[in-house]
Amino acid sequence: MSKKKKMPKAQPAEETVSIRKPESEGAPVSVQKEKNEGSGAPVESNGSCAEPKGVPVEPADLVYKKPKRSKKDRKNSILYLLPSLLGVLLFFVVPFFVVIYYAVIDNPIHAEFVFLDNFSRILQNSSFQQAAKNTGTFSLAAVPLAVVLSLGMAILLEQNIPMRSQFRTFVLSPMMVPVASIVLIWRVLFDYHGVVNLWMSHFDWAPIDWFKSSYSQIVIVILFLWKNLGYNMILFMAALNAIPKDELEVARLESASPLQIFWYIKLRYLSSTILFVAILSLINSFKVFREVYLLTGDYPYDTLYMLQHFMNNTFRSLDYQKLSSGAILMALVMVVVIGCLFLAEDRFGKDVEG
Amino acid sequence: MRKLKRTVKKAVLTIVAMIFAVSFLLPTILTMANSFMSEVEINTNYGVIFNQYREREYGERNTDYVPEAVNLKLIPDMVTGEQYSTVLLKSPEYLLKFWNSVILVVPIVLFQILIALGAAYSFTRFRGRLREMIFFLYVALMLMPFQVTLVPNYLVSDWLHILDTRWAILLPGFFAPFSVYLLTKFMRRIPVSLIEAAKLDGANEWQIFTRVCIPLCKGAIASVAILVFIDYWNMVEQPIILLSDADMHPLSVFLSKINSGEVGLAFAVATIYMVPTILIFLYGEEYLVDGISYTGGVKG
Fold first, then answer.
1. Which CATH class name applies to B90-296?
2. For residue B159, how many C-alpha atoms fall within 13 Å in the half-sphere facing its CB?
3. Which CATH fold would you assign to the domain A122-353?
4. Residue A24's pLDDT is what?
5. Which residues on A lie below 8 Å from B186 (Cβ)?
6. d(Cα B25, Cα A66) in Å, to the nearest integer?
7. How far away is chain B from the Cα of A129, in angstroms, using its nearest Cα?
8. Ranges for all domains in chain A classified under CATH 1.10.3720.10
């Protein structure tokens, strides 16, 4: 089995890899097993690997040394934080405790402690259920799509194609366009008498009432992706750029297929960015109320009734108990989901390494 | 053979990228192009869509002839500035709403960054346990959606009796944690040796802050300013909850309300509303891209 036998000439390449980044051994070695022919490549790799390169240094964390601190400086520097901290405490933190207080009392006048009653009441509220379900469905559809598509586009733009920077500009441009400005054209496209249905009629497809049917979420997902893909793509492009070139070079010289390079090397470096993009998209998916509101107003079709609609209507009736328990539930869900994403990244990151 | 394959691959990739690019650009271009149509032409092209809204909301029937099918047009038959002259000269209400947006967004961008610079400096210079915890609090707050943060904001505005005034939006905007997070991330990349050197030269904290940190952060400040500006230029949730007086609403909310009556006009107003962000984009794309990359924390 000459295939599995390690080529002596390739040996140094493998060594240098392990010198550079000890944890990365797994990827190039497993690539090497499937290598069939040297054809001069290993010699080249010898040459390029001969020059010593240091382990990539994380600038912020490793270089940072604790400066000599005097008590006076310390006190002084608190002053710089103070305006911001006071504002945050006043506008976000302190009232949030009041929100918690409101959530566990009966009503603001009697202030009778009812513990979880408000929560169970809101969970049984049918419009809350509807809103939570819609928002959940939307996020479940939009977030993975946003991550995968933007990663795909970042990889596409990494290829050697002409006019890359123009493409980047075009894809990023929706981010700059206020939602309110684009709503009109979206109506023209997706109205029952709109352009999309007109095109579909050429193929003899039945027209769909996009804003008032179970398809309505699709329109919003498209609008969401249109607006957010550019941002995510930039994040992925930066992350792809940050992958050490020499490691990719070695893998390529060891004739790893592009798919292997992607799976064993790139994805490993990208995992934290994937996590970040997922969290960001999740937060943005909660903001999609904007698009829905501007397109369909206060009382949209059932499948477009989002959590923010529920909150708006509750604000109108000023039911503090409902508002507070709703806000707390949402905060908890955010904490849990983001926690899970972190755990998944931890797992996944290790998976790729091992 | 191999070369051919590579050429084909490149061509396919280019075409895919072009399709993406065009589909991303098209809605914006269409909006801009349609703003140069006359009301008559808009009615001919899109009447079938917008007349139903008009009928429902005003009970008035449009008696002009309207074709059965919608007609999406990129280039108007006759380019006219009619809509713009109406918006800019004849009906001041749109300009007033535009001004509403400006006086909400510009102070927020300025003060949020000023306040955040101080906080970021403090988070950078001393990294004790307490301060790391406070920083974590900021990050957690940043991750919370409006549905969560608006309730506390509403309560405070109510206590301070600033509900239904612009301060209800301005003040929470000044203290929003996003810029603190981003500027801290950037400032922590400034080599400590620079700050130490300034200290050895006898600079005090204020001088280090204003003469070393802020000049080094110029690019980052531009990036943050752009990101914050876009975010608030787009705001919808805060005004509809915190400002019950529709006269104070920014154009981002008001735009959706003029849609049904005067569609041609709405296209023009929509385009005018895009102008500031598009100008920023054209002149500051690099800062924007840098800013986005810093949020991911991978740029270095």
1. mainly alpha
2. 10
3. MetI-like fold (1.10.3720)
4. 40
5. none
6. 49
7. 15
8. 122-353
Report residue B189: phi and psi, to 5°: -85, -15
Residue of B nearest to A192 (CA): B49
**Partner residue facing A198 (CB), from B69, B134, B288:** B69
Quick check: helix, strand or coil at residue A146?
A: helix
Q: Do A171 and B263 touch (CB under 8 A)?
A: no
CA distances from residue A245 to A61, A241, B36 in whole angstroms, order as listed: 22, 8, 49
Report the half-sphere exposure of B138 (CA within 13 A, side-chain side).
27
**Residues of chain B with C-beta less than 8 angstroms from the C-beta of A87:** 115, 171, 174-175
B144 contacts A334 by C-beta, under 8 angstroms: yes
Q: Which long-range contacts (CB under 8 A, 24 or more apart) does A259-262 make?
A: A260/A31, A262/A155
- What is residue A224's predicted lDDT score, i.e. its pLDDT? 94
How far A134 CA lies from chain B's nearest CA (Å)? 15
For the packed helices A307-317 and A289-296, what is the interaxial angle rounded to 10 degrees?
70
For B273-283, what is each residue's pLDDT tens digit? 999 999 999 99
Give the position of tokens 């579909």. Answer: A200
- Best B3, B53, B147, B273 residue to mutate vs chain A (most A CBs within 10 Å): B147
Question: How high is the pLDDT of residue B254?
Answer: 86
- Is residue B262 within 8 A of residue B252, CB to CB? The reply is no
pLDDT tens readout for residues A200-239: 888 888 888 888 888 888 999 999 999 999 999 999 998 8
Residue of chain A with shortest Cα separation from B24: A171
Q: Which of B118, B141, B195 sits opposite A81 (nearest CB)?
A: B118
Whole-number average pLDDT of chain A: 78
Report residue A141 as tokens. Answer: 């559809």
Q: Cα separation of B143 and A276, whole Å?
A: 11
Using DSSP's 3-state secondary structure scheme, residue B258 falls into coil
What is the distance in angstroms between the CA of the first residue and the CA of the last residue of chain B?
40
Ordered DSSP codes for B106-147: HHHHHHHHHHHHHHHHHHHH---HHHHHHHHHHHHHHHS-HH
Q: Are A289 and B175 an interchain contact pair (Cβ–Cβ within 8 Å)? A: no
ipTM score here?
0.88
B143-180 pLDDT tens trace: 888 888 999 999 999 999 998 899 999 999 999 999 99
pLDDT of A233: 93
CA-based nearest residue in chain B for residue A321:
B151
Cross-chain Cβ contact A170/B22 below 8 Å: yes
Alpha-carbon span B153 to B150, nearest angstrom: 5
Residue ranges in chain A modelled with pLDDT below 70: 1-70, 348-354
Q: Which of B178, B137, B109 shows the shortest CA–CA distance to A94? A: B137
If you search the block for the tokens 């019950």, which residue do you land on?
A: B244
| Phi and psi torsions of A263, nearest 5° | -75, -45
Written as six digits, the tokens of B209 are 């802050």
The DSSP string of A215-271 is: THHHHHHHHHHHHHHHHHHHHHHHHHHHS-HHHHHHHHHTT--HHHIIIIIIHHHHH
Q: Do B295 and A180 touch (CB under 8 A)?
A: no
Residues 1-40 of chain A with CB under 8 A from chain B are none
What are the sequence ranges of the domains in chain B? 2-87, 90-296
